[in-house]
Amino acid sequence: MKAQDYRTFNLRFQVAKCPPWMQYHQLNLIEPISFGSWLTLHNRVFISALTRNCSVPTNVPNDLNVEYSRQHPRSAKLIVSEEAALTLRMDSLGRTTRPHAPGI
Question: In terms of domain of life, where is this protein from (predicted)?
Answer without folding.
Answer: Eukaryota
